[in-house]
Design goal:
mainly beta, single chain, 2 helices, 4-stranded antiparallel beta sheet, globular
Length: about 210
């Protein structure tokens, strides 16, 4: 048997895929099973965690605790809201990560800019540096898009896609990649993935990307 010489194969993503978040994410999800090494996982930064939050030893899950944790005061730590940020930040490029929600009744997930007020009561809005969605009893009071409570089937895994130069933060149900919501804005400073497991809510938020 004679075998012909194989043709040249391009390793570049087609323009129509690179320019469309859903197509990009679906291709990435298919590719990550055969990529070695896989894309790096996000980890949580304990230095930013509210003192009522309990973070796992591997820095990949966070839950609310019944008692204050013994942590030193620092300017990076959230003292009013139950937030913790990732150790990784972004100032350019396209990025995607996933968060396990399980059966949690309440949560807030998204991105925030580095300069957000971490010590006072603030409105969770893009104007204040928060691009987040939530499952809460009352999202409107916090100016968070109410895109979860109206869904008959609540997502158990959340996909977040950030296009820094494109000014876009998109949220997906990571199990079927159905679109939930997209913020469009202009980013001018460092952005951090942000996680809030909410008070009196012992189930954890879990970082799944990797």
């Amino acid at each position: 048997m004679e075998f012909g010489k194989p043709g040249t194969v391009s390793t570049q993503l087609p323009a129509d895929i690179a320019g469309e978040p859903v197509k990009y994410i679906k291709v990435w999800r298919e590719m990550r099973a055969v990529i070695s090494p896989v894309p790096a996982s996000l980890t949580l930064d304990p230095e930013t965690a509210n003192n009522q939050l309990i973070i796992s030893q591997d820095l990949t899950s966070v839950r609310h605790g019944n008692e204050q944790q013994s942590r030193f005061y620092n300017p990076e730590r959230f003292s009013t809201y139950m937030y913790v940020l990732s150790s990784q930040s972004f100032t350019s490029g396209r990025h995607y990560w996933e968060v396990g929600l399980g059966h949690k009744p309440y949560w807030v997930v998204g991105v925030c800019r580095e300069s957000v007020n971490r010590k006072a009561n603030i409105t969770h809005s893009p104007e204040n540096g928060f691009w987040v969605i939530a499952r809460l009893a009352d999202c409107k009071s916090l100016k968070i898009p109410d895109v979860i409570t109206q869904r008959k089937v609540k997502p158990r895994k959340l996909g977040i896609y950030l296009d820094y130069e494109g000014g876009q933060v998109s949220f997906y149900d990571a199990e079927d990649m159905s679109h939930l919501y997209t913020f469009t804005d202009t980013f001018t400073e460092k952005l951090y993935p942000a996680f809030n497991p909410c008070r009196n809510n012992s189930d954890p938020l879990t970082l799944l990307t990797g």
